[in-house]
Amino acid sequence: MIKKEMIAMLLAGGQGSRLGVLTANVAKPAVSFGGKYRIIDFPLSNCINSGIDTVGVLTQYRHLRLNTHIGIGIPWDLDRNYGGVTLLPPYEGGENADWYSGTANAIFQNLEYIENYNPEYVLILGGDHIYKMDYEVMLDFHKSRNADITIACMPVPWEEASRFGVVVADENGHIKDFEEKPEKPSSNLASMGIYIFNWPTLREALLKLKDQPGCDFGMHVIPYVHEKTSNCYAYEFNGYWKDVGTLGSYWESNMELIDIIPEFNLYEEFWKIYTNNDMITPLYFADSSKVNRCIVGEGSEIYGEIYNSVIGSGVVIDEGTVVRDTIIMSGTHIGKNCTIDKGIIAENVQVGDNVVFSVGEYAESVLNPKVYAFDLVTVAENSVIPSNVKIGKNTAIVGKTVAEDYPDGLLASGQAIVKAGEM
Questions:
Q1: DSSP per residue over 136-203, as a string?
Q2: pLDDT digits (tens, 9 = 90+) for 266-286
């Protein structure tokens, strides 16, 4: 059996609750991004572009669509007889087998998978960040320091540092201290949730901590390894990296793609982003259409006007409708004479005629003020919005709504309509 130098374990089981209704029925890594991609496409593409051909994808929450999207890994050249991509949901395999209860517990439950390849190194990745990184360069850094663990890090604004695990490191990257989401951080060098472990080091830590409830890398494994060995290093990354964990950051990172010179370029030849995309119908712009600074997916039909927006595949925007600063995911149909401002509309939504988004003044969300806090109109997949209604800011719509759900034809700012059984 061929021994693998390094394999990747991609954690893709998270619900992503801060994305609100977008993840009501789909795992966060399977959420659409940039018109034609899904969030998980980015770490998967990084793997194959970095020469890593063995990836275990650990799934849990609402993983059906993620499984369908990844399949046997053909778009990423990960359909291999030995290695390739393997989906790893929780399974009942013996004593203490259960749902994954933490990031490290998920890896522990798949020790057998890793041991099958007996790698020298194991790369741990999250499935919910937008970035391009050559993991081979990080591995070279790891080897050059003779490290037991290397943590990819990047500087963040001081006011945001408490959201992350932060490291204190010297000029050679040697980690002096590690703090997981500290109230008063002593560093702004934040962990990106990307780790390279020597396999014996990781294996020993997981076995030692196997009875730790909710065993997590940031809370348990890294502090354990750091206490046991001094060979812990920080690999500083200075490229584009975005945690799209909130509706605001998700919307902003999509909007950044349509800048004249985007900070994050989806179309670089030397570092392609691959995806499973079977849409082959041509894109159609009618004589009545106007388009400015947009991404528009294959198979879409545009009869209205779209500005500064990201439009998925198979979307229909009817005549007289104006769309601005909005994300519209695949399969959605927007009716005639609508004004769609600053929305996130998920897949396969039906919007009637004469619908207006983002009316009125700011109001705090009654559903969850921490989630719906960015003046956005967020519409869950497969929802229906009837004709002739107006929708305020910080609102959410889930399900097949009818005119009677909108008092006086209005969903006021901060309000939500969630049809019974839809969330």
A1: HHHHHHHHHTT-SEEEEEEE--GGGGGGSEEEEE-TT-BEEEEEES-SS-S--EEEEEEEEEEHHHHH
A2: 888 889 888 887 766 889 999
